[in-house]
Amino acid sequence: MIECARCGIKNSEDLFFCKSCGTRLISSEVMPDDKKQAGIAELRSVVERLVSARRAESEPIAVAPLAYLPAVRTDPQAGFRLVQINGDGSDGPVHQFGSGTVDIGRTAGNLVFDDPFLAGRHARIAVTAEGHVLTALEKRNGVFRRLRGPAEVVAGDKILIGKQLLMFDVPPELERAATVGTENGQVVFGSRTRPSWGRLVQLTPAGVPRDVYHLGRHEVVVGREKTDLVFSDDELVSTRHAKLSLQSGRCYVEDLSSLNGTFLSLRDPHVLASGDVIRLGNEVLRFEGQ
Question: The pTM is what?
Answer without folding.
Answer: 0.70
